[in-house]
Amino acid sequence: MYKYFIIFEKTKTGYSAYSPDVPGCIATGKTKKSTEKNMKEAIEFHIEGLLQEGLKIPKPMVSDVEFVNFKFYKKSDKHQAVA
Predict the structure, then answer these.
(1) Does an H or E element contain 27, and which?
(2) Fold observed for domain 7-81
């Protein structure tokens, strides 16, 4: 069984998703849940196509995810946080 990392992004009209492990495979939806469903279907369809063409299934490359906090400052005042 393969586990692919999926990135969800909020858009003006809903959500979009992609996986760095499956280049070119994207999905959209009005809700995050519908986008996740669409992305799973898109990956399955993509993998089926690769198998039909006799190509290799991409192996998951992302094994861990970590969020890192950053604080940015204006050049003129290093003590005034921007974000």
Answers:
(1) strand 26-29
(2) Double Stranded RNA Binding Domain (3.30.160)
